[in-house]
Amino acid sequence: MLTLRQVRLAWILVLPTLLVVALVAGYPLAQVFYWSFFKADIAFVEPPEFVGLENYLFLFQDPDFRQALWNTLTFTVVSVSLETLLGLAIALIIHSNFRGRGLVRTAILIPWAIPTVVSAKMWQWMLHDVYGVINVLGVKLGLFAHKIAFLARPELLLPSIIAVDVWKTTPFMALLLLAGLQLIPEELYEAASIDGASRWQQFWSITLPLLTPALVVALIFRTLDALRVFDVIFVMSGVNPATRTLAVYNRQTLIDFQDLGYGSAISVAILVLIFVFVVFYMRTLGREALR
Amino acid sequence: MRRFWRFLNRFFFYLLVVFVVVYSVFPFYWAVISSFKPSNALFSPDPSFLPVPFTLEHYENVFLRANFGRNLLNSLLVAGGATLLSLVLGVLAAYALGRLPFPPKNAVLYIVLAMTMFPQIAVLGGLFMLLRQTGLFNTHLGLILTYLLFTLPFTVWVLVGYFKGLPRELEEAAYVDGATPLQTLLKVMLPLTGPGLVTTGLLAFIAAWNEYLFALTFTVGDSVKTVPPAIASFGGATPFEIPWGSIMAASVVVTVPLVVLVLVFQQRIVAGLTAGAVKG
User: Fold this and answer.
1) Using one digit for the tens of pLDDT, what is the confidence trace for A185-223?
2) How crowded is the C-beta side of B250, counted as CA atoms within 13 Å?
């Protein structure tokens, strides 16, 4: 009796959330799939025309799409690798016992809290070709011979943007890894010390294997985030083809070019790319959480 | 000799610590002091590392720009609205999913989990058309609704965890005393999830406050535009006219509330981040 009422209540409680999900995700998603088979502009100035798979076939011929895909993958691989290494180092530092570790943890939360747009602007100013503090200090300390136009030279643009992203997102990585480190029982290290294992051996045979689950979760989260990167790229270099990622190209096609059909096909391509990772993520994370 | 090595070890360790702190904090510090420097000191070949000479002119400029106050208000309305709505809807759904017998529980949880990783860009075109069709384009409500795409699933996901962690006995005691399930939720369980609500609320607020793509695409003019797209488009027609002082002042204005929140609620934010592993 109570159970039946509870089930009914459960439905009533979940329903608003399901409706919202249907409205802001389900319906727009269906639209994107539908229009990807049409030649149509987003304001419907011209009547839409069914073109079958034409938009998808064009993806394979479009050099701009290929470049955007390449930029996205480069950005993802490089930034996530750097963030992982740096995040691991910072997590290990905070995890070791020393005075002022609370301060360090607070300090690394600052980049995390800063809006991406703001961090992009801050770094644009620091990387300014004439008055930027990085150029001023770099020359003064003799790190580089003369000032560098970081954001004007195409080959330095993506590395600069990656540096900004690494600064902003490493804290997240460090915090996830720190939580993982704190789960490793202290006794293991004590036992290993008694057996005469060096710090280095302890790291490779205790820390790293036991940290793997946290590492995998953190990696997947950051990878998914990096694959859809938009803010930092768009603020720092707009739609510049040298750095334009899939998300930037997608928005440009949909909104600037008003090309609903092809833009939708790009959206589907991004979804497929991310779906592969989401499945992976569900299989590693989801199973545990759903238990 | 051994003491010397230990000292050296310690020394390098603290050097590393100092490096991490400076690396994390310096860019924001630089933005703050830049925002207080008069333009001639800002564009100097030998900038000072302290805000001397000191001026508030950039802050005056920012707030005298008729629209920046408006942008701030919009940010507050949209982020606040999205947070409040996700908390209300999220608590209800999370209680059902975490505590009540609900046959399609796993299916719903899978949808919610998938949604937390959902790429905003993939529904940009669909949402754009939806907002146009419903007359919600360039309205606060429209922006709030689209923000639920990323705030609501995350809220539900984290709160389910909180509800699951509460002891069974409390609920049973309430039922024995004749409380209905809804009363049990509101009077017994909800007060206990206070910390969870604060954490998820904060994280949802920060995510909405910082959002850029939707705010850029679903608003025109300044009547609804939030701060991130406003800051991104600050400035003149050529690179030489970029008002760096004002941009830094505006950046500090939007960031300071976040930094204060982070300092005050540090523990909760870290707990929530690692529990829900929200996007950075």
Assistant:
1) 988 888 998 988 888 898 898 888 888 888 888 888 899
2) 29
Domain boundaries, chain B: 2-42, 66-276
Confidence of residue B280 (pLDDT cuts 50, 70, 90): very low
Asked: is B66-276 a CATH 2.40.50.140 domain? The reply is no
8 Å CB contact of B123 and A29: yes
pTM for this predicted structure: 0.91
Nearest-CA distance from A227 to chain B in Å? 9
pLDDT in tens, A115-160: 999 999 999 999 998 888 999 899 888 888 888 889 888 899 999 9
Residues in chain A with CB shorter than 8 Å from the CB of B244 are: 125, 128, 131
HEC per residue, B122-170? HHHHHHHHHHHHHCCCCCHHHHHHHHHHHHHHHHHHHHHHHHHCCCHHH
**Closest-CA residue to B73 (of B258, B224, B216):** B224
Nearest to B27 by CA among A119, A63, A145, A186: A119
Distance between CA atoms of residues B196 and B188, nearest Å: 15
Q: Report CB contact under 8 Å: B119, A227.
A: yes
Q: Which domains are present in chain A?
A: 36-290 (1.10.3720.10)
Whole-number CA gyration radius for chain B: 24
Over range A29-35, report the average pLDDT: 96
Chain A residues whose CB is inside 8 A of the B156 CB are 17
User: For B235, which DSSP code?
Assistant: S
